[in-house]
Every structure is written in structure tokens, then in C-alpha cells.
Amino acid sequence: MTDLLLAGGEVVDAGAGLSGRLDVAVTGSVITAIGRDLDRAGAGRVVDVTGSLVAAGLVDLHTHVFAPGSALSIDPDVAGVLSGVTTVVDAGSSGPENFAEFAALLPGARTEVVPFVHIGRRGLAVKPDVTTADDLDPDGVRRVLSSSAGLVRGIKVRVVSPALQGPGLAMLRTARTVAREAGVPLMVHVGDIGGLAGPSVGPETLELLDAGDIVTHVFTANPGGVLDADGKLLPEARAAAERGVLFDSAHGCKNLSFDVARRVLDQGLPLHAVSTDLTLTGHGEIVFSLTEVMSRYLALGFDVPEVLTMATAGPAAAAGIADRAGRLAVGRPADLSVLSLASGDWSVSDSTGAALRLDRAFVPVLTVRAGAVVEPGEPPHPWGWEPTSVAASACC
Ligand SMILES: [Zn+2]
Question: What distance in angstroms lies between residue 278's CA and the mean position of ligand 1's atoms?
């Protein structure tokens, strides 16, 4: 017995070797068949998705969804299932002192939330998150990791001022020690919004990262990123990529430059994930949603399967959930994103105010999360219709 049949969509999953017009059958919370012209008569519900793309459930590798415990956070379902996304990684909105409060909220979300715990005591519920070494809580992070039964998948560290003037990169070494003990990755924010990071911060940060660690905000125009002052890719960035360090674009309000993106990509650094760094403010300004962020990478030269991979298999692997997310296959959880590709003429802005013209945009049509169908929610503006221009602002 099939509970749900998504019929006639264009299935796109490069990693699974799937493309073309295929039906997807779901029973309970599991994918039970993928193929041509599956039996409709025996299905409890048939949804005709002709003309739409059908992908593994989108995974947003960098969001802030500890609402209301952290003022910058947004409701996980607004970032998630209501925006076409089945799984969001929370990037350090909570730390050891308030993690239990965050974890208690998660069963209320329809979206899967994968927390990365912050090395600072209260995560991003306080700003600045780290000022002195006393704000770091490695033992608390150890406790959270050992008691969370696999819920917490990594540790978040922000290489920014004023932490750089306080503990400095000793903060990153401390977090790294705990991460290596626990066998989880670090997610490292690069790009000092305070503008004070010296030229050695980027190279030294990259040298401390190991295979599986995540550089988030790789296209930042702020100091401490992967380019030198002349716009050349740091050799340490290339070496990090070669040893398996992962790179995530994490748009956010202040850490994405289209110019930096082009320079970094032209010099051959791989990109593993396109994420939002979605916050309450970012949802209304600049960032909006994962599908809109993904649309920008079409304009930056990636094709549809590549962008989808960077919003499914890439982030799922980085978050340590590749066993259950990021790929379409029989027997796996029924997390799916049905999207359409709208055509138009839009101008969007990066964090520096630079514009980019888009002629295509991903639009969420339906989200299937653990077998349940969710319609898109109220967007910041009509889905897929990017505003004609957005001014860079001081959000998040
Ligand atoms: Zn963030």
C-alpha cells in the first residue's frame, strides 16, 4: 500500500544517479519506490507534480532557529518545511548553559533540526558571544556532546572580534581539542565583521582545520577569509580543501560578496554547501530563504543539479547525517522537496550592496517531511519573485 505518490516530476539527484521523469512512492515515513509510471490506483494520495523538480529534502547547513531563546533566531519551520527545506542545522545559537532549553523546543518542530553547539557558554543568545577566555565552556560542550545521544553533530566557533582580541585563536584550538575527542566537526565562522582580523588570522585558522571541518562564510568580504589582500586564494585554503575541509557559503546579512565568490570559485576552491545563515532579520532582508539563496548560484554559473547537490548531499554529509538525508533512495526517510524553476528578471544584493541579475529562481511547491506533506508558508515576498532591489543593511 502506497500512502503518497508524487507523480510525473523531474527527479534530480546527481549523487544517486537519478534524473528524468519519475514517480516517487512513500509509505509511512519511508520512500518505497522510485520509477516510471508507478501504480496510481493503489495509492492513498496522488499528487501530480508534472513540471516540477523533485529532489531529496533540502538541508540548510547554517541557520539560527533557537526561537525564542535567542533573539536573532527564527522559527525552525519558517526556515524549514514552510520554505521547502526538510532539515536545518542550527549553527551555535545555543551553548552548554542553554542547550537543554533549545533541545526541549525541538520536538515541537516539523522540520528536522540538527544542532551544532557553540563553544561559548550561551552561544549566540548573547552578543558578543565570546569576549574573554572565561566565556568559553569546553567542559560544558563535552557534557552536551556526551549526553545528547547523537543529536548534536558539531561545535561552532566564530573567529571574530572581540574574541580575537580576547582568547584569540586559542579559542579555536580549545574547540578543536573537544571536537577531535568527540569525533565531530568544527564549524568555523570566518570573516571578522569587526574588521580587525590581521592578515595571519585566515591562514592560521585554515591550518587548524581537519577533514570534515566546515569553513562557513567562505565568500566573506570581511578580513579573515580565504583570500589575501590581493584577492589571491590563500595556499592554506587550497591545502585545507585537499585534506578534506569543507566550504559553505552561508549567505547571512554581512558575510557574502558576489565578487569574492567569483574570485574564490575562479581559483578552483570547491564549494560543498550553499546555506542561508538565516536569522529573524535576514528572513526579511537580503537572505529570505534557502531557495532564494540557491537561485543566486544559478546566476553565479552552477547548473541545477550542482546547486541541488550543494543543498542536499553536500550539507547532509557535512552535518554527519548522510545516512538518512540528502539522497533519494528506496528505504530512506521520505524527506523530499518539490520545487519549480521560475523564469524572470530580478536583481538581488549581496552583503556589500553589490547587485546580481537572476533569470531563474527556485520556488518551493511542496515539502514532504517524514512522509507528511507540507504546503509552503507565508514568504517574505511572493515565492520566487525576488525583489527588484534590496539595500544592504545592518541586520544580524
Ligand atoms: Zn550564523
Answer: 7
276 CA from centroid of ligand 1 (Å):
8
With 0-12 CB in 10 A as exposed, 13-18 as middle and 19+ as buried, what is 149? exposed
Residue 147 Cα to ligand 1 midpoint, Å, equals 24
- Residue 344 has what pLDDT? 86
What b/e string do you get for 246-256 counting C-beta neighbours within 10 Å, with b at 16 or more? bbbbbbbbbbb
In a domain, 182, yes or no: yes
Please count the residues of the chain. 396
Q: What's the CA-to-centroid distance between 48 and ligand 1, angstroms?
A: 37
In the three-class reduction of DSSP (H, G, I as helix; E, B as strand; rest coil), residue 141 is classed as helix
Residues with Cβ–ion distance below 5 A, ligand 1: 91, 277
In a domain, 49, yes or no: no
What's the CA-to-centroid distance between 357 and ligand 1, angstroms? Answer: 25
172-225 confidence digits (pLDDT tens) = 999 999 999 999 999 999 999 999 999 999 999 999 999 999 999 999 999 999
Q: What is the CATH number of the domain that holds 220?
A: 3.20.20.140
Ligand 1 centroid to residue 380 C-alpha, Å: 19
DSSP per residue, 259-315: HHHHHHHHTT----B----B-HHHHHTT---HHHHHHHHHHTT--HHHHHHTTTHHH
Residue 51: per-residue pLDDT: 96
Would 283 be classed as within a structural domain?
yes
Distance 354 CA to ligand 1 centre (A): 21
- pLDDT value, residue 391: 40
Ligand 1 centroid, distance to 239 Cα (angstroms): 25
Q: What is the distance in A from the centroid of ligand 1 to the CA of 270?
A: 21
Structurally, the chain folds into a number of domains equal to 1
Q: Measured in whole angstroms, how far is the alpha carbon of residue 68 from the centre of its chain?
A: 20
Domain range enclosing 246: 58-318
State residue 156's pLDDT score: 98
Which residue stretches of the chain have pLDDT < 50?
Answer: 389-396
